[in-house]
Amino acid sequence: MTRNPVDVLIRRLDPEVPIPAYGHPGDAGADLVTTEAAELAPGERAVLPTGVSVALPDGYAAFVHPRSGLAARCGLALVNAPGTVDAGYRGEIKVIVVNLDPRESVRFERLDRIAQLVVQQVERVRFHEVAELPGSARADGGFGSTGGHAAVGGPAGGMDYAAVVHGREGQ
Ligand SMILES: O=c1ccn([C@H]2C[C@H](O)[C@@H](COP(=O)(O)OP(=O)(O)OP(=O)(O)O)O2)c(=O)[nH]1
Ligand SMILES: [Mg+2]
User: Fold this and answer.
1) Are 42 and 105 in contact (CB under 8 A)?
2) Residue 4 counted as an annotated binding residue
3) Of 39, 7, 57, 29, which is closest to residue 115 (Cα–Cα)?
């Protein structure tokens, strides 16, 4: 089943820039181009303009993701991947690239596709401060803890999540 597309307003700041397009049906990302040619030495980074700005509907955000082909072929990464474009941002979308190849420079021509934009619905949350968090199977096991000794504490032990949240409403 195909869902209706979400409408996003876009402004071209450069008349030669193509409207971001999905390569295939079902693709998550629409490609962004750079309007400036650039050459990055190994380890060098740059903030590249894309020539577009957007107005996303409330409740959405757009994420600037790397293109895997450039990552595999040239070692190109996005410093802040994925870059977050807020619904209220009306400025030009920029792409913060870095050349991670230790030896080779990477060169872009004007209008080369350098990144892809993924538009997603995002939740807005309310934070409820509590003295103790409910238990969980993972508990405080952090990086690399899976597969070691068993986590202490059962699922949601000792606290009714909904009661804590709803019990505090109106306070
Ligand atoms: O890859 C990116 C990431 C962000 N932005 C724009 C849109 C986003 O809404 C704004 C701010 O980004 P972010 O919140 O990540 O940066 P910040 O350092 O937290 O800045 P601010 O204090 O303005 O929120 O910059 C881009 O154009 N490209
Ligand atoms: Mg921010």
Assistant:
1) yes
2) no
3) 29
Residue with CA at minimum distance from ligand 1 atom 7: 85
| Number of compact structural domains in the chain | 2
* pLDDT 10s digits, 1-12: 568 999 999 999
Q: List, for residues 16-38, the tens digit of each pLDDT value.
A: 999 999 999 999 999 999 999 99
**34 vs 47: CA distance, rounded Å:** 10
Measured between alpha carbons, how far is 100 from 71 in angstroms, rounded to an integer?
Answer: 9
> Cα(146) to centroid of ligand 2, in Å?
32
For residue 36, what are its two tokens? 């400036």
18 and 78 fall within a common domain = yes
- pLDDT > 90 in the chain, percent: 82
Give the pLDDT mean for 36-63: 98
Specify if 105 maps to a domain: yes
The single-letter code of the amino acid at 118 is V
CB 93, CB 117: distance < 8 Å: yes
pTM value? 0.89
* 3-state SS class at 103: coil
Could you give the count of Cα atoms lying within 13 Å of 22 in the half-sphere of its Cβ? 9
Task: Please report which ligand is nearest the Cα atom of 92.
Answer: 1
